[in-house]
């Protein structure tokens, strides 16, 4: 009987067994254990309460301050300090200081710290992002992370897998973001609850790494435990240039067991918008009222990579337009490495001249943390992954999730807009 | 272990951003978090919730962010148990790990109304609605999860496991 990617990678990390199937409960070894400035403080408390003195491997425990970085107030500064002191005390090999890091899900892959075939647990629900390089990666809460930091192990139920197959030539301004939004719109925010999602098909092979990260990133928005993009030449080129250690790619068997298979034809698909207040409230852009907006946020672990910002730069350069003076446009590179690449292209100047506010890398506005929190009744177009009530500020603020081209066009027009309108 | 409390009823897909908004994630203190519990969906909750009260939700309760602050704020508010049609995966683990009882039962969750009193037997996994007299059987926990619950959460569980290793 064939195996899915989740089954193969879990089996390769399982204690006591060599083969697993969906539904099995197993204890597994972890390759990387990650937490951020919100989740690490509790994970460290749990770790200490467990009576453990040392992390299982100082090379594999990674604490990334990203959410309120650079510290927005005294309390967040104290939380970050907890991470810094713990990293020093435990002599952790990898440090993620402000100015040298960024959002965990952008930084870890770009530094080659998360690799194909890895089993990764992270104190952040978007840990599933690393499925883009073919890792089994899943988010957990802090106490689970404390346990994994202590033991290098965790327990898992082997998930069932849903397969998603994408065909057809994409129209202009349709990206991986639109594919994953459409998918979540179809199956709902609990459509993949407890399950693994495998994304395949000819249209997936054509995706850039950055778009693959975007798709894997939003697996949790369908309730998924993990997601996978296939390991191919694109993945290999990305990983080879970065890998910090040897790795083993895995491939799903042709006769693997899938609980369901979903086919998508992209040839007629428009850019997709997730309307308030749920990532599954998805409509083609032509069906959404082009309402006036107050803010645009381009960034986050979903769409804060170099290729995402290149889309924005391209639109500004081709049209010669600037952003609407009535809209606050926040552009936040997902990591300092992305920031530097964007700077070298001359795009910081381009964005700033167009009226955008470019900032040091942070999660910031994505979770209503800082750097662009919304007031009541304000409307925002965001390239991030969640538009729940209160997610980006006041509970009555309204967030529309979109791809970077739609976000840029909307920032220029001062209302929700298709890039073709420019 | 038996629990009894009044129902606070919510719908499907209650996400962790409405359970405890990110603006309060600059602390890990349960009492402070409890003051803002459910604030973005039910502004009266934190003021009026009584020790022992029970939250009843629909499907996918606790979806979204992995923040353990969500079950911590609920436990900190004095809630004794959550009953829902289903739980989001990370929330489920977090609640078990911190020792907040949660039970899955589609029928019990659908039948409960705000203000009902539920009696819950955690060992038997039964939920009785005192208004209707109906008793429901919750989905059983996997054995491994039961071991964590019996130990009182993942921290004491781990201490036990590591303790065995050291002496054995
Ligand atoms: S950018 Fe947003 S979704 Fe991504 S890790 Fe930060 S807060 Fe979470």
Folded structure, characterized:
The complex is a heterodimer of chains A (422) and B (168). By secondary structure, chain A is of the alpha/beta class. Chain A has helices at residues 5-13, 40-49, 74-89, 104-110, 142-151, 176-187, 202-205, 209-217, 233-240, 300-303, 306-319, 336-344, 347-353, 404-413, and strands spanning 25-29, 32-36, 61-64, 119-123, 136-139, 153-157, 161-167, 196-200, 226-228, 260-265, 272-274, 282-284, 295-298, 328-331, 356-358, 379-382, 398-401. In chain A, strands 15-14-13-16-17 form a five-stranded parallel beta sheet. A four-stranded parallel beta sheet of chain A has the order 3-2-4-5. In chain A, strands 9-8-7-10 form a four-stranded parallel beta sheet. The model of chain A has no long low-confidence stretch (mean pLDDT 97). Chain B has 168 residues and is α/β, with parallel strands linked by helices. Chain B is built from eight helices and seven strands; from the N terminus they run βαααβαβαβαβββαα. Chain B has helices at residues 16-19, 30-34, 45-48, 69-76, 89-98, 106-111, 143-151, 154-167; strands spanning 2-9, 54-57, 81-84, 102-104, 117-121, 126-129, 135-137. In chain B, strands 4-3-2-1-5-6-7 form a seven-stranded mixed beta sheet. At the A-B interface, helix 2, helix 3 and helix 5 of A face helix 4, helix 5 and helix 8 of B. Bound molecules: iron/sulfur cluster. Iron/sulfur cluster is lined by residues 66-67, 103, 105, 124, 126, 300-301, 363, 366-367, 384-385 of chain A.
């Amino acid at each position: 009987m064939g195996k899915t990617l989740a089954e193969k990678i879990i089996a390769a990390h399982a204690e006591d067994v060599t083969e697993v199937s969906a539904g099995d409960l197993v204890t597994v070894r972890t390759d990387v254990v990650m937490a951020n400035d919100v989740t690490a403080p509790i994970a460290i408390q749990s770790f200490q309460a467990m009576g453990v003195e040392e992390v299982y491997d100082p090379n594999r425990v990674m604490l990334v301050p990203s959410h309120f970085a650079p510290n927005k107030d005294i309390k967040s500064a104290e939380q970050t300090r907890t991470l810094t002191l713990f990293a020093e005390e435990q002599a952790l090999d990898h440090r993620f200081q402000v100015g040298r890091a960024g959002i965990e899900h952008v930084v870890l892959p770009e530094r080659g710290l998360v690799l194909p075939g890895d089993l990764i647990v992270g104190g952040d629900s978007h840990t599933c992002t690393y499925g883009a390089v073919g890792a089994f990666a899943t988010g957990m809460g802090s106490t689970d992370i404390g346990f994994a930091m202590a033991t290098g192990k965790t327990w898992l139920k082997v998930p069932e897998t849903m397969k998603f197959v994408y065909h057809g030539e994409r129209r202009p301004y349709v990206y991986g973001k639109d594919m994953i939004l459409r998918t979540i719109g179809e199956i709902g925010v609990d459509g993949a609850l407890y399950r693994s999602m495998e994304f395949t098909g000819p249209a997936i092979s054509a995706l850039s790494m950055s778009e693959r990260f975007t798709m894997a990133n939003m697996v949790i928005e369908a309730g998924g435990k993990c997601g996978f993009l296939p390991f191919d030449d694109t993945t290999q080129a990305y990983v080879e240039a970065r890998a910090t250690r040897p790795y083993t790619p895995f491939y799903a068997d042709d006769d693997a067991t899938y609980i369901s298979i979903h086919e998508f034809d992209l040839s007629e698909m428009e850019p997709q918008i997730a309307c308030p207040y749920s990532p599954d409230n998805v409509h083609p852009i032509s069906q959404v009222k082009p309402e006036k907006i107050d803010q645009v946020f381009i960034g986050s672990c979903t769409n804060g990579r170099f290729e995402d910002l290149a889309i924005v730069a391209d639109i500004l350069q081709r049209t010669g337009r600037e952003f609407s003076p009535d809209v606050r446009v926040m552009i936040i590179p997902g990591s300092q490495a992305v920031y530097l690449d964007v700077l070298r292209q001359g795009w910081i100047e381009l964005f700033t001249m167009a009226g955008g506010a470019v900032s040091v890398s942070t999660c910031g506005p994505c979770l209503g943390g800082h750097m662009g929190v919304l007031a009541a009744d304000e409307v925002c177009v965001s390239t991030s992954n969640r538009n729940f009530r209160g997610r980006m500020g006041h509970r009555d603020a309204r967030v529309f999730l979109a791809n970077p081209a739609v976000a840029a066009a909307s920032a220029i027009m001062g209302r929700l807009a298709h890039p073709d309108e420019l | 272990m038996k629990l009894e409390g009044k129902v606070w009823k919510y719908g499907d897909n209650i996400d962790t951003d409405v359970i405890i908004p990110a603006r309060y994630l600059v602390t890990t203190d349960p009492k402070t978090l409890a003051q803002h519990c459910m604030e973005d969906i039910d502004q009266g909750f934190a003021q009026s919730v009584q020790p022992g009260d029970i939250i009843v939700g629909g499907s996918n309760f606790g979806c979204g962010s992995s923040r353990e602050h969500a079950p911590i704020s609920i436990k900190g508010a004095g809630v004794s148990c959550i009953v829902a049609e289903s739980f989001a995966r990370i929330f489920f683990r977090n609640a078990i790990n911190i020792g907040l009882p949660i039970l899955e039962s589609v029928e019990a969750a659908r039948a409960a109304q705000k203000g009902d009193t539920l009696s819950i037997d955690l060992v038997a996994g039964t939920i009785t609605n005192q208004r209707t007299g109906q008793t429901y059987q919750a989905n059983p926990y996997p054995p491994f999860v039961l071991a964590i619950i019996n130990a009182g959460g993942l921290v004491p569980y781990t201490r036990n496991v590591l303790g065995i290793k050291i002496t054995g």
